[in-house]
Amino acid sequence: SLKKNFSVIYIYIIMYETDFLPDCKSEEEIICLRKDIKKSKDIEKIESRHGRISKSFEVSDCIKNKIDSIAKTHSKNINLRYIGHSIYSKKYGTPRLPMHLDEPACEFTIDYQLDGNISWPIFINNQEFILKNNDAVTFIGEEDLHWRNKINFDENSFLELVFFHFSSDDHWFLKDPENLEKRKEKINKRYKKIKEIKEKNA
Fold first, then answer.
1. Reported confidence tier of residue 188, pLDDT bands at 50, 70, 90
2. DSSP annotation string for 140-159
3. How far is CA 26 from CA 30, 33, 63, 113, 199, in A?
4. What is this structure's pTM?
5. How far apart are the first and last CA of the chain?
6. How many helices (H) and strands (E) does the chain have?
7. pLDDT in tens, 137-185
8. Burial of 133 (0-12, 13-18, 19+ CB in 10 A)
9. Which residue(s) pair with 2 in the sheet?
């Protein structure tokens, strides 16, 4: 059963402190979110290499206003760009989420666990966060290295997630998506972060 509170863990890029924000989503808002997902006209895509099925969708004002209020605590100048819905299950392949940075224009991400019957912690810059249903964690998707360690899903295990990605209007990717220098910089940053994490865990 879903908890009444939608707890959000904040990760600050410099100090990496955490903070919980209780009573963020009511059961009525969760029902509203479910309806928004169901209304989506996007075609669900099976991504077998990640063991998930995914699609994008749009949210109604009752959800958008609440999500915007969370994001604005990070920056007043960012706007909602993309919302994704994914279900991880063995039905779609072997669930996996290797170390990665999100694609450009992800200056703020809300990673929300809508439902599930298995615990699959997310690691962000080598910090482990164990989310329960109706919990979320926020981070800077294009800056903070994140992943989930490999675990075994049984035939009935599943994890349902919603991702809210924000960026500013003047983000370089929105102005010049073919900027090869910026893309090269992102790739180098990714490899540097992976190397740092692996050396720390060695």
1. confident
2. -TTTS-EEE------TT-EE
3. 6, 11, 10, 14, 42
4. 0.82
5. 39
6. 4, 12
7. 999 888 888 999 999 999 999 999 999 999 888 887 777 777 767 766 7
8. middle
9. none
